[in-house]
């Protein structure tokens, strides 16, 4: 068969798959869920950064049932979108464009622009805590004329197209929020404190409550931590990750933090801690210790490895540990069959995935909770995004700028001869993050 005939066959197949998906969705419209303009029931967005003058960046829409890109133009999000955030109800998705320091938001129900907000500098952490068009971004380098501080929590109003308030927080690096957005925790670089905010009490356009007279109605600065970098809020409790030696501190740990009283109630030492994932009463904690980083038990050319600690919150103890890839860990996702995907950036890359010979490894580790083993997929590069599903045994992994699809029972790339021959969704440019915008 000629190459042209092969392409024609594949084009017809892709069209039929998309058509069937659309018809299937229409047939299910009686459930009350309104069809989005694309007609796709299970959608995923990937941020696509490009440097070409002939190709524009944006948010690429993916058919999450078949791992294909429908014939739909990307949603606008600047030329170099990367970091993404979605609301709990998935009605809003936002992406940060590093080329313009702008956050672009889209209404996922309409698959259309909701608005954009220009920040006072780059952000590496943002949240959309509710279904309303408001979000928070930590901007460590934010400066404002007439003020001497550097760093702020920016309150974004996507519908209004601007910042409602800049709350001064020195070197604000990471932000997490409670479920209704009324209480926010901000983590700053090289600090042993965390800043707790009540954004609704802040006075626009610039609130300096954290600089002048804390504690107050807006801001309380809580000391007693050890280079805290991240946390997970569960009801009235926050599990704070102390980075410790990896970030210039003393001891890595998980601190249990009571939100109503703003007090530390328990400290659980761990090997290292920059990111975590909570499942029931089990907290999976990852990091790279500057001292305890031997790659014991592995046949690898890497000389430094990270650690995964399994913490039982009921007893307040570490019940297990595993050796994983190194780097700064900042992504985790647990699949329905118990595969914990762990991603980092700035890790030790070994070999070349494009010209494999011998060991190939990057920033991705897969911890199998069933037998406590660890698998290292043969890939290279930073892991920027992870997205799993409850109805499919696959995991989307944004690694090294590509969007891989992993068959999680086999821990291999999901190969579909007609639709996904290389196990990679064909997106032009650099994939900076990936998020599902439908529950499936």
Report the oligomer: single chain
- The share of residues in helices is under 10%
Helix and strand composition category? mainly beta
What would the principal axes of the Cα set say about the shape?
A: globular
| Count of runs of 4 or more consecutive helical residues | 2
Main sheet strand line-up: 7-8-9-10-14
The major β-sheet equals: 5 strands, mixed
| Rg, alpha carbons | 22 Å
- The average pLDDT value, as a whole number, equals 91
Structural overview:
The protein is 7% helix and 42% strand. It is mainly beta and 440 residues long. Strands 7-8-9-10-14 form a five-stranded mixed beta sheet. Strand 20 and strand 21 (282-287) form a beta hairpin. The longest helix is centred in the first third of the chain and has 25 residues, at 3-27. The two termini are 38 Å apart.
Summarize the structure.
The protein is mainly beta and 440 residues long. 7% of the residues lie in helices and 42% in strands.
């Amino acid at each position: 068969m000629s190459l042209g005939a092969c392409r024609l066959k594949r084009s017809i197949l892709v069209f039929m798959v998309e058509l069937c998906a659309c018809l299937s969705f229409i047939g299910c419209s009686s459930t009350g869920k309104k069809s989005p303009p694309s007609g796709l029931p299970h959608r995923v967005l990937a941020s696509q950064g490009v440097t070409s003058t002939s190709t524009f960046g944006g948010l690429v829409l993916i058919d999450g049932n078949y791992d294909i890109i429908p014939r739909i133009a990307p949603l606008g999000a600047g030329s170099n979108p990367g970091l993404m955030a979605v609301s709990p109800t998935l009605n809003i998705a936002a992406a940060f464009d590093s080329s313009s320091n702008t956050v672009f938001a889209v209404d996922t129900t309409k698959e259309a622009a909701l608005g954009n907000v220009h920040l006072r500098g780059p952000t590496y952490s943002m949240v959309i805590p509710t279904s309303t068009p408001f979000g928070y971004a930590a901007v460590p380098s934010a400066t404002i004329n007439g003020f001497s501080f550097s760093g702020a929590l920016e309150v974004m109003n996507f519908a209004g197209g601007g910042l409602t308030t800049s709350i001064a927080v020195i070197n604000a690096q990471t932000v997490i929020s409670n479920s209704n957005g009324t209480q926010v925790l901000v983590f700053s670089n090289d600090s042993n404190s965390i800043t707790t905010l009540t954004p609704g009490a802040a006075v626009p356009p610039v609130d300096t409550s954290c600089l002048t007279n804390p504690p107050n109605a807006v801001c309380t600065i809580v000391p007693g931590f050890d280079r805290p970098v991240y946390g997970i809020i569960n009801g009235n409790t926050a599990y704070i990750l102390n980075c410790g030696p990896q970030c210039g501190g003393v001891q890595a740990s998980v601190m249990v933090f009571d939100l109503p009283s703003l007090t530390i109630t328990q400290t659980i030492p761990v090997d290292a801690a920059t990111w975590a994932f909570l499942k029931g009463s089990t907290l999976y904690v990852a990091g790279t210790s500057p001292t305890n980083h031997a790659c014991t038990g592995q046949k690898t050319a890497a000389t430094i490895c990270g650690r995964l600690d399994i913490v039982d919150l009921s007893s307040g103890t570490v019940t297990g540990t595993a050796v994983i890839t190194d780097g700064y860990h900042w992504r985790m996702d647990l699949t329905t069959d118990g595969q914990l995907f762990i991603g980092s950036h700035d890790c030790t890359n070994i070999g070349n995935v494009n010209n494999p010979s011998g060991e190939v490894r990057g920033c991705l580790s897969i911890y199998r909770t069933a037998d406590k083993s660890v698998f290292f997929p043969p890939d290279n590069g930073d892991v920027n995004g992870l997205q799993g599903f409850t109805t499919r045994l696959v995991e989307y992994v944004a690694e090294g700028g590509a969007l891989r699809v992993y068959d999680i029972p086999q821990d291999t790339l999901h190969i579909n001869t007609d639709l996904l021959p290389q196990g990679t969704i064909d997106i032009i440019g650099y994939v900076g993050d990936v998020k599902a915008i439908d529950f499936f």
